[in-house]
Amino acid sequence: MRLMYKEIIAGGFQQLLELFPDDEFQNLTRSTIPLLHYWRQHEQTAHRVITGVFGADLPIADLRFEYEVPAFGGNPPSCTDIMCLSNDVAVAVEAKSTEPMYELVGGWRQDGNQQNRLNVLNHWIDLIDARTHGVNVRNVDGVVYQMLHRLASACSMGRNHCAVLYQLFPLASNAAEYIAEYVANLGLLAEATGAGDDVRIILHNIPITPGAAHAAVAAAIGPLDRINRAHAVREAIIADDLFEFGHEDFVEIPGH
Asked: pLDDT value at position 5?
């Protein structure tokens, strides 16, 4: 299995972490941190995730971190946390931990150059509809815009089976509300896009608690400058038990 970050790299997980910008490693609350910690044992993790999504351990050839799918007309691309790929499978993985819900399509397309944004939106819709043949354009305005173009990214890969997988790493204090909010919004995505057996929408709930090293690492990075802080967090992701992961649930969000 090759690890990829925008381009193919073969130097392993340490090299992958070095290719992420330092800004991703300035604290332990960004969803990037539990995501990378969870995917340290990337081959075993990929097998577990793919089995959870499709009910079978389908082979995965590549993991592509921070994978970009072009938007219409040179606009900013959709950048998926991890794209899992094989000849038959494409799974777009998006991690969330403490982030608030992003804006809806209806609000997003009213800002800036509205014709340009309509063109961008139609591009994402066309990618999805080419796979599902069931997009209900009238309902798209109520969908979270990021969720729409993450699903479009998975559909764009030309695989027989595709999915968007939202990996949630909720804090215990708000886990129930956080999960419910994502279930509801992913449900709107599924209904508006006609997701089904070959285009799946999955919520992957992975409860986290601070691990044995979490408090010590959080205290140690406080006085460090930006570069040394990023270095310390990268090392902690590889070497330490920053998080403990609880029982995982894969929840398929039904479409039509």
From this structure: 58
Other CB atoms closer than 10 Å to residue 11's CB: what's the count?
10
Of 160, 185, 5, the closest CA to residue 89 belongs to 160
Q: Show the domain range for 149.
A: 2-252
DSSP label of 195: -
Two structure tokens written together for 122: 């139609």
Q: What is the total count of domains within the chain?
A: 1
> Which two tokens mark 213?
């090293």
Residue 45: exposure state from Cβ atoms within 10 A (0-12, 13-18, ≥19): middle
Cβ atoms of 31 and 98 closer than 8 Å: yes
pTM (whole model) above 0.90: yes
Nearest partner of 193 among 149, 251, 250, 158, judged by Cα: 149
Tell me how far apart the alpha carbons of residues 37 and 239 are, in angstroms, rounded to a whole number.
10
C-alpha–C-alpha distance, residues 217 and 236, integer Å: 7
70: helix, strand or coil: coil
Side-chain-side CA neighbours of 44 within 13 Å: the count stands at: 3
Task: Answer yes or no: are the C-beta atoms of 83 and 93 closer than 8 Å.
Answer: yes
Q: Give, for 150, the enclosing helix (H) or strand (E).
A: helix 145-155
Rg (C-alpha) for the chain, rounded Å, is: 18
Mean pLDDT in consecutive groups of 10 residues from the start of the chain, 256 residues: 56 85 93 93 88 84 89 95 91 93 95 94 97 95 98 96 95 86 97 92 94 94 96 92 92 84
Residues 6+ apart with CB under 8 A from 119: 72, 73
Phi, psi of 190 (to 5 degrees): -65, -45
- Give the Cα separation of 96 and 98 in Å (integer): 6
